[in-house]
Here is the input.
Amino acid sequence: MKKILPLFSYIFHPLFISLYAAIFYFWSFKDFYNAPEIYVALIQVTILTLLIPISLFYLLITLGKVDSFMIPNLQQRRIPLLVNCILLYLLTEKSITIERAPELFYFYFGALISTLLAFIGLLLKKKISLHMIGISALTVFIFFLSLLSQNLGIEIVASFLASIGFVASSRLSMRAHSVSELVWGFIAGVLPQIILFYWQL
Here is the structure.
């Protein structure tokens, strides 16, 4: 089991969460969008939340500013978090707008708030698990999608609820976080999504 648990840290790395959310969203509401619209949106999400951050990571690693993609050092998280805030802002302003995809817009807006909370934690010398922010926010989003559409079954929601536990166990087994850091990550990921969901109702 110890050999399997680290896989969850890579499968649910924060870099992939935004793309996962977009895929589930467009799967849930595929009848409301044509194929070109979906492809363009997925390409934009991939560029802004995956390709640009990965390029930045490679640059920072090359310059010796970051040790690895997991960013274990507290101080090394500042630049990636600030860049992620900028990219999420651009995504919600120019691509996934409230007019085009309201539910997905609110997910990314919630992700922006969660990232800001993680950055504030850094300023207070508190390490918040970005993995837990990502998987918990995604799970809440998928739960809400299951309520709004008939394309996501309860088994998918249940599997993501279980994934929260697997990701938490993975981070503990890798000694990347303490229990309190995981709890704060869970709170920072869940609360913005819940508040914004009820805001849009």
Helices lie at 5-11, 14-28, 35-62, 78-95, 102-123, 130-148, 154-173, 179-200. The longest helix spans residues 35-62.
